């Protein structure tokens, strides 16, 4: 939006051309989204508290969580507002990738909002039935996959890149659509499973989004892409603005979500942010790097799968409770210790993912 205004004003003052630089608009995206989150956050928390939109807590969960009952939830709406406004303000609205990731984010957020609303406001413990939740997630995931497949201008945009091995490239063809669906929907639900402790999901999301922003910028720059031997994706550099907005909105939300949390994200935020990470990773062809950098999300998801599978097959549980963060709580780790250690693990994994740019 403001990019168009800057283009117009450049006719009268060449100084406005500075807004053409992706790095500047990426930084402005971070600052704008963070400012929106920090400024609107207290108002939203008061409104959620006033309307008694509070978190319900499972009786069979860790006893330390019982005190969290009634804490305002659905705060993820604040994140989505900040991301959308900042992206529309500083992004190039003629760029297809910007619209794909933004629409995917908002649709998944809408699915999460309906689920949260039914659970918290209508007091329906089931929320949105699983079949309908996955139906709408599938519609959004497949829709994005088809758009990206049909708009691909070269084979590099649909090939599977294996990190650390420059010679291993897999042509996926039509399987790209199925693969993209699983990446977007899978990442969305993985982040949702991780969102169980104060700040546990949001900071890893911020770190992974920041790293994907770097990948986006480099993939969209033909010289950097050639030097680093990564796919050159024309127009993907613009996603640095969206990723920057995710970073800023996430940090602003963390201001209120850090232990002890004043507000929870809810499905409206977790499902949307996970889908956004998956969509960006697909566009810049770094799905396997996303698995590395989002290792905490992967571990949480795998712990649930193993727990359910083991109990159904043998009647025994592998973990004291799943997802994995609850296992460590029941082992006696204080909640802040679990959170910070998972953050530290994410820092290490994000650095490993970034190292794949050069170690090939």
Poorly predicted spans:
none
Helicity level: 55-70%
Q: How many H/I helical runs?
A: 14
Q: Characterize the overall form.
A: globular
- How many strands, which pairing sense, and closed or not: the largest β-sheet? 2 strands, antiparallel
Strand content: under 5%
| Rounded mean pLDDT score | 92
Radius of gyration, in Å, reads 20 Å
What order do the strands of the largest sheet run in, or round the barrel if closed? 1-2
Keywords:
two-stranded antiparallel sheet; mainly alpha; single chain
Description:
By secondary structure, the protein is mainly α. The chain is built from 14 helices and two strands. 48% of the residues are buried. The model has no long low-confidence stretch (mean pLDDT 92). α7 runs antiparallel to α9 and α7 packs parallel to α10.
Helices and strands in order, then pairings?
Layout: H1 2-9, H2 22-50, H3 76-90, H4 96-120, H5 130-150, E1 159-161, E2 169-171, H6 175-194, H7 202-219, H8 222-228, H9 239-257, H10 266-283, H11 287-293, H12 295-314, H13 324-330, H14 335-355
Antiparallel strand pairs: 1-2
Helix pairs in contact: 2-3, 2-9, 3-4, 3-9, 3-10, 4-5, 4-10, 5-6, 6-10, 6-12, 7-9, 7-10, 7-14, 11-12, 11-14
